[in-house]
Amino acid sequence: MKNARKTWKVLGLIGGAALGLAQIKDAEACGCFTPPDPSVPVVQAGERIAFAMEDGQVTAHIQIQYAGNAGDFGWLLPLPSVPTLELGTDELFNQLITLTQPKYRLNRVYEGNCSFNPQGRGGGGFATGGAAPTANGAEGDSADPPSPLVIQDSIGPYDYAVLHADVKDDMLKWLADNHYFVPAGTDATVGAYVRPGAYFLALKLKSGSATGDLQPVVVKYASDLPMIPLVLTSVGATPDMGIQVWMLGKGRAIPRNYYHTVLNDSVIDWNSAGANYNDVIIRATKEAIGRHTFVTEYAGTSSILQNVLNAPNRFGSNAELAAQPDAISFVEYLNQHGYATFNQSQTGGGPGFSSALYSSQLLSILAAYIPVPATFAAKGITAGQFYQNITYYLGSYRQQTPDDFVGYTINYQPAMMAMQIDQRVVQPTLSAGMLFDKFSYLTRLYTTLSPEDMNKDPVFSFNATLADYANTHNANLTYHCGFFGRDNQLTTPATLQTADGWVLQYPYGTGSTFTPPALPASERIEILSEEGPPQVVTDNTKAIGDGLGSQGGGCGVGLGSRAGETASGLGLLALVGGMLFWRRRRTA
Hints:
The chain has helices at about 1-10, 90-100, 170-175, 185-190, 230-235, 275-285, 320, 325-335, 360-370, 385-390, 390-395, 395-400, 415-440, 540-550, 580-585; strands spanning about 45-55, 55-65, 75-80, 85, 105-115, 135, 150-155, 160-165, 200-205, 215-220, 240-250, 250-255, 260-265, 295-300, 340-345, 355, 440-450, 460-465, 470-485, 495, 500-505, 520-525, 535-540, 560. By secondary structure, the protein is α+β, with helices and mostly antiparallel strands. Strands 4-10-2-1-11-17-14-13-22-23 form a 10-stranded mixed beta sheet. The protein has a 5-stranded antiparallel beta sheet with strand order 3-9-8-7-6, with helices on one face. Strands 5-19-20-21-24 form a 5-stranded mixed beta sheet, with helices on one face. Strand 20 and strand 21 (about 500-505) form a beta hairpin. Helix 9 runs antiparallel to helix 13 (about 415-440).
């Protein structure tokens, strides 16, 4: 009993974003994520979780991703203590992704007379939780027959229950009797989390709710450390599933019982802004024992997200919103007071050239009262476009194309809408924003795993002595145009120096399809402890240097080495001795 309790305290817990789902797939477009930025790699993660840790209290924001029938939605989360539950917001993850996303950027340098030099020839170059939960008696109450139920309540679009996890069969029977969907295969994996003093949180959608009503949840519970129960997640996981974790605390976060991998950035396709980034991650994770490793993608100040979600005076006044006289003015109030966020166009300026981004929660509420005309989908008019330009669509456009509005009705209830928006959008967003005022340090970790690899639950902790890690990586690509000049940028010989100092030659230009060098995707694999520097387990720096020094020019990539090492002619850079090589190492 003592050891069991100790184990739970160490494993802490919190479950994956897609934990225990009947089907785990990428979510349908939620309306809140920004359009792809061509300068950053695209990563589709199956699970996204943001942890905050302080004084034995874990707060976990979990993005629930699911595609399927609403009646088949089921979500199970093992816990070491009785939790509290609040609503979260997709916008938290939208902003976290945007502001901590790895970026691989090239600084182009032009040697000689390069006609394609853009500078000219010869240039150089707090969330509401509804009513208080109803407890099923105090812990230890005897009942005949005994029930595992501790709490049963609802919040937002969900019905939920907290159950004792002392006896597996009793818990699973209660879930089945109360119409909580339990995915096939769960019975075989849930046993790892069943023990005296343990609990499960179960979610299902309320009757009448649709999958579009799903929104993140905030789970708060007592534990020493946070953990992701991947053994249970494996039931519905997909091959090479991405897992993104953000940790807020007083220092840099570490995977306590997983390895840590530093990528070899010479196998990144810098010319396409790292389009092969996720492939490199997959390769790198497979190089670690058991594939149990995480990559740090950002570690540094959390101030990059201060006043983003909870900007001063954002959302205006709920009373003013409820007092709007009609549907058009109601939506325009939302647009003007930060309920939607706006992405500025790359090709224009001003409000007319920006696109509005609405969270899935806001879209779900608007759709129930001010729906998008059914004919718009066939015309390619999205919900976001409709609400951003509602004055036009319900004004002159409706007058010009009345056939699009045959049978169209609006159920305008401003007081009810304002109340729901406050509960499901405003309060969760403001609460999430407060995290970055309270916690000074933010870490982003990422890995990819297949179901067969999910046999060990990762636990996370902190090491405040580790260095920061930037998410922006800059490399130099130098074009060698020569005195007589070059006109074709793609066929001009070039030299790439990566952010970590590796040098690759392109003697035939950068226009060929990129094939990464046949090198390890991990520069090194290490163990991070709660104190002290990393302990290196696998060091591939020499193998990478030797490999770059013997590349034969396939697909336009010639010989390479570490930056600062001696060169012998264009495309014939040679590796020098280990001492210089190690002096050129960059601290991660």
